[in-house]
């Protein structure tokens, strides 16, 4: 076939394609553009674009939504019309524009209790000794007369042992279970135990301690200020009896400002296990990094907050001896010496 015939054949094939006649893909064996041809095409396109007026350029674009064009025009003159923005927000956010609001980087604060928001006004050893004697006296008054003479000392020892074991295992051994196990250990038959009597004995054991807790200096003012600023507040504490812990919260006057008040005895997990924070995250619909965990213990409060990815504040109003061996390995995001320092810190993080 001559060159002229070849050109006529290609022209005929192109006419056939444009007229709507079927043609197999790549039937003409078309080759992709070479790099030189592509550069030439782009050069011509740029030259043509440079010569277009603004009206010609807009006319050459695909039709746009009229509201989008109006907003684009207004951008050059000033702020876009608020009603147009609202309608556009509805389009882009599935009609939920009314729910869109600025979200604080801090969604809530989780406090420890002892030596953070509250402190004992008497030595704990003294309080446990008095409580144990009262509890044993009550149990004997109900007919448990064959308890060993040294049972009150054993009760204090059992509490300390249970707290140590709970801390090692990160699972709470409750005060009620501890008393039951102690009685069985000293030979008292389980069949003779009355659940209500044991429950009452535990309450009496903790009674002197319950009334010895008092708010830390500035704690009430701090919670009132943060609560008034709109921050949800929670207390999460390692404590062996939830019913006693809830009474302590009431005695100290903290509950008014708290959205969540949780003890390890209620969920069986102890800080720093991350599971204990799940209830707060679910209730507040918050991400872990939106929480600030505040407490006096590097091991429990700071490490617990870091375990879930929260911001952490170490309180050093009443330093813990065990923290001295942890300062090199557990680094909080901030350290405060007084509770009054916390609001300004939270403001910087928001």
UniProtKB/TrEMBL annotation:
Pfam families annotated for this entry?
Hydrolase
Q: Spell out the Basic and acidic residues composition-biased ranges.
A: 40-49
Q: Where is this region: Disordered?
A: 1-67
Regions crossing the membrane: none
Q: List the GO molecular function terms.
A: metal ion binding; phosphatase activity
SUPFAM superfamilies registered for this protein in UniProt: HAD-like
Keyword vocabulary terms for this entry: Hydrolase, Magnesium, Metal-binding
Compositional bias of kind Polar residues: 1-10
- Listed cofactors: Mg(2+)
Q: Is RNA-binding given among the entry's keywords?
A: no
Which InterPro entries does the UniProt record give?
HAD-like_hydrolase, HAD-like_sf, HAD-SF_hydro_IA, HAD_sf
Please list the GO biological process terms of this entry: small molecule metabolic process
> In the UniProt record, does the keyword Magnesium occur?
yes
Q: Mind telling me what this protein is named?
A: HAD family hydrolase
């Amino acid at each position: 076939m001559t060159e002229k015939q070849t050109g006529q054949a290609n022209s005929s094939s192109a006419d056939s394609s444009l007229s709507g006649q079927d043609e197999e893909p790549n039937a003409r064996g078309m080759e992709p553009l070479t790099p030189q041809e592509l550069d030439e095409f782009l050069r011509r396109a740029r030259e043509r674009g440079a010569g277009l007026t603004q009206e010609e350029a807009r006319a050459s674009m695909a039709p746009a939504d009229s509201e989008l064009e109006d907003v684009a025009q207004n951008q050059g003159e000033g702020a876009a019309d608020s009603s147009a923005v609202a309608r556009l927000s509805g389009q882009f956010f599935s009609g939920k524009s009314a729910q869109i609001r600025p979200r604080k980087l801090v969604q809530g604060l989780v406090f420890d209790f002892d030596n953070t928001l509250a402190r004992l006004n008497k030595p704990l050893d003294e309080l446990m000794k008095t409580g144990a004697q009262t509890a044993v006296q009550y149990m004997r008054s109900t007919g448990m007369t064959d308890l060993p003479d040294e049972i009150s000392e054993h009760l204090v020892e059992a509490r300390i042992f249970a707290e140590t074991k709970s801390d090692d295992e990160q699972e709470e051994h409750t005060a009620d279970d501890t008393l039951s196990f102690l009685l069985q250990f000293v030979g008292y038959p389980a069949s003779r135990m009355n659940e209500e009597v044991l429950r009452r004995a535990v309450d009496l054991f903790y009674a002197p301690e319950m009334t010895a807790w008092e708010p830390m200096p500035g704690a009430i003012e701090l919670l009132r200020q943060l609560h008034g600023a709109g921050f949800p507040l929670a207390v999460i504490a390692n404590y062996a009896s939830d019913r006693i812990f809830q009474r302590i919260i009431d005695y100290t006057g903290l509950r008014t400002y708290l959205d969540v008040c949780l003890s390890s005895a209620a969920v069986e997990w102890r800080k720093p296990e991350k599971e204990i924070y799940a209830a707060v995250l679910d209730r507040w619909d918050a991400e872990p990094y939106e929480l600030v965990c505040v407490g006096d213990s590097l091991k429990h409060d700071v490490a617990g907050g870091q375990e879930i990815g929260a911001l952490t504040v170490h309180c050093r109003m009443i330093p813990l001896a065990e923290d001295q061996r942890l300062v090199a390995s557990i680094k909080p995001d901030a350290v405060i010496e007084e509770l009054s320092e916390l609001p300004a810190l939270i403001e910087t993080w928001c």
